[in-house]
Amino acid sequence: MAKRKIPERPQDCVTINDKVAYSNMVRELWENIPYDAPPSGVSDLLDKYPFDPAYPWSHPEWSANYARIELKKQRAQS
What we know:
Helix content: 40-55%
Largest sheet: none
Number of strands: 0
Distance between the termini: 32 Å
Mean pLDDT: 92
Strand content: under 5%
Low-confidence stretches: none
Shape: globular
């Protein structure tokens, strides 16, 4: 099975899987910024992957929150 391509921009995300993959990618990039990185490390990432409220999945915490909500829904249905 081929690996799914992650959209390059939040606007390109169509499905929930796209949105989760994009949010996870941004989160991984944030977590991989070295502790001793210069401020430009953070600002470069923000320039490349800015958070846009119109596309909430552009935030690194969106996928974790989405997973919590889905789990809560599943528990309620059980």
